[in-house]
Design a protein that fits this description.
Helices cover 34% and strands 25% of the residues. It is an alpha+beta fold. The protein has one domain: Peptide deformylase (Peptide Deformylase). A 5-stranded antiparallel beta sheet has the order 1-2-3-4-5. Strand 3 and strand 4 form a beta hairpin. The longest helix is centred in the last third of the chain and has 20 residues. The chain is globular and about 45 Å long. It binds zinc ion. Zinc ion binds next to helix 2.
Amino acid sequence: MLQLIHYPHPTLRITSKPLARVDDSLRDLIEQMFEIMYEHRGVGLAANQVNLPLRLFIANPTGEKDSGEELVFLNPVIQKASGTIEADEGCLSLPGLHGTVKRNKTVQVNAYSMDGKEINLKVDGFLARIIQHEIDHLDGVLFIDRMFDQGAILADEIARFEARFDKQREEGQIPDDSKLDQQRQTWLDKYCR
Ligand SMILES: [Zn+2]
């Protein structure tokens, strides 16, 4: 069973590897990701937020299980981006934290669907923001890296997440780095070769 991981879990800082194949168990993993995303009231979720080192993310801008469209992007790449716009963002990897992030207004994204079709989308608005936030995740970048003006409050919040992570690790709820490396390597061997 997949589980949401929180900052500063090391898998949130890796660069995800492109998928070389798709199979039924990947479909099952993606279904689990949608369940987790809806359960936590998210609108997008990158694979490394559930400890998978794979280059894929899911999204549903409505955040509701039975409305909108469930989008899956495999091996996404932003090919063009233009304009800038600021808006409030949050992240399931740092629950409760919000802040203003500057993003491109419009992006052109290339990716593949689960059935191997190439996707070329030009989007703006909320979905463009989601896509940039999720592709950042796949490159090991978090929205807090892009929040510059929240100084002391942000530092406090981040320290709280770090203290919680250290405690969970001491209690054995989170494996050590070499065990995490091993877990990730197993996924890479299965999907990225
Ligand atoms: Zn996020």
